[in-house]
Amino acid sequence: MTGIEIGAPLAREEALKLRAGDAALISGVLYTARDAAHARLIELLDRGGELPIPITDAIIYYVGPTPAGPGRVIGSAGPTTSYRMDAYAPRLLDIGLRGMIGKGRRSPEVIAGIKRNGGVYFGAIGGAGALMARCVTAAEVVCYDDLGSEAIHRLTVKDFPVTVVIDAHGNDFYEIGVRNYAEGGMKP
Amino acid sequence: MREIKTGAIVDAVREMCIEANRELPADVADRIRAGGGAEPWPPARDTLEKLVENFEIAHREKIPICQDTGMACVFIELGQDVHLSGIPLAEAVNEGVRRGYAQGFLRKSVVADPLRRRNTGDNTPALLHVDIVPGDQMEILVAPKGFGSENMSRLAMFPPAAGERGVKDFVVETVKMAGPNPCPPIVVGVGIGGSFDRVALLAKKALLRPLDRPHSDPYYAAMEKELLERINALGIGPQGFGGLTTALGVNIETFPTHIAGLPAAVNINCHVSRHAARTL
């Protein structure tokens, strides 16, 4: 697999260089969170609490993996649909979240939050959980263990393949890709 | 009268939950491969190649194709000359799901209450449908259904005047609205007719028919073909990055309906369009 090699956590200046449509390979640390974990994080912020993960420059991966079988680090681990986290994402972006990995469209509010903060939204291949699990070299639960698969995990990843879907300038590859394809251009 | 012990149902459901989540049916796998070969658009070709790699890894390493191992939709056709002995049928099915999801290291994705949302911890209950049919055999089909695609499904109660055109436009519009969200390339199950409840079940059942088997009625077979062409002309493509392969197939199921109505439902499935079946 090929792509721009980037690290996680991801600094603002690195995020600003990325463009919608770029293929990227992420190495470093990702935090997982889906619906239930996001609800708890926001509730915590509302109460003035301290987040259980270092949010500055962090990349959150929207995933609820399958349990690891014997001898495995993690089970299948592909992205879940991102719009369900749209209600929470702008708040996290405003306090330092740099990137999100998921699949599917984002709301205008999230896109505005990405632009405002120099963030980035990556798409991973939905339904390719077995393939992406291979890029996870370590996984541990950070908190909310009672949520099972929805607990916040700390994943160490190596060359995790993603596409830049929404860049820090607000370009959206779901629109650009479909448009360029329709116009018959053979370069994304 | 033939006796079937419900313990055999527990075992069969357990096995099928695991198998369906690891092994993509050949008709779906073939369409994904064929789609990749036909794609002129590099992001689309690349995505489809990765999907092939993904289901091959799942098969080889015995892990789920997708992390959303779904709610277990279980369809039973029970011969009326069968006598079931042992624990009640629904309990047997749920016990099979419980064991399959634990032993197969599948994700437990079911909450006990839709609003209070506590996970049941064992992926039960199953969504069980039983039809009584002639004979002394029992057909069990397990279709784990992911919700990324389920959430993009729609139902409409059209007036009869909407006709064929209204239904077809509704199907295409549903896929367009879903865009990249349901993990295209998708499989589209369409239900037409019946009632409010029945039409949704028809759409679900449409997803179970192999993609290489068109509707037995040439009128609907032609409609399936036309809808697939219209959907793939949308250009959404694999993962929504543009391309030819937005859908792998469109299947339609119908039922007689009321003189005042024209129910239509579209149940979307992702490219991990899974099921396994056994005859007892």
Structure in words:
The complex is a heterodimer of chains A (188) and B (280). Helix content of chain A is 26%, strand content 26%. Chain A is an alpha/beta fold and 188 residues long. Chain A has one domain: Alpha-Beta Barrel (fumarase). Chain A has a 5-stranded mixed beta barrel. In chain A, strand 6 (136-143) and strand 7 form a beta hairpin. The model of chain A has no long low-confidence stretch (mean pLDDT 95). Helix content of chain B is 40%, strand content 25%. In chain B, the strands form 3 sheets. Chain B has a 4-stranded mixed beta sheet. A 4-stranded mixed beta sheet of chain B has the order 6-9-7-8. A two-stranded parallel sheet of chain B has the order 1-3. Chain B starts with a strand and ends with a strand. At the A-B interface, helix 5 and helix 6 of A face helix 3 of B.
Q: What does the oligomeric state look like here? A: heterodimer
- How much of the sequence of chain A is in beta strands? 25-35%
Most extensive chain contact? Answer: A-B, 47 and 48 residues
The computed structural class of chain A is alpha/beta
Stated plainly, the CATH topology of chain A is called fumarase
Helix content of chain B: 25-40%
Question: What is the averaged pLDDT score of chain B?
Answer: 97
CATH superfamily of chain A: Fe-S hydro-lyase, tartrate dehydratase beta-type, catalytic domain
Shape of chain B: globular
Strand order across the largest sheet of chain A: 2-3-4-5-7
Query: How many strands, what sense, and barrel or not for the largest sheet of chain A?
Result: 5 strands, mixed, barrel
Strand adjacency order, main sheet of chain B: 4-2-5-10
Query: Termini separation of chain A (Å)?
Result: 17 Å
Number of domains of chain A: 1
From the 3D coordinates, which CATH architecture of chain A would you assign? Alpha-Beta Barrel
**General shape of chain A:** globular
Strand content of chain B: 15-25%
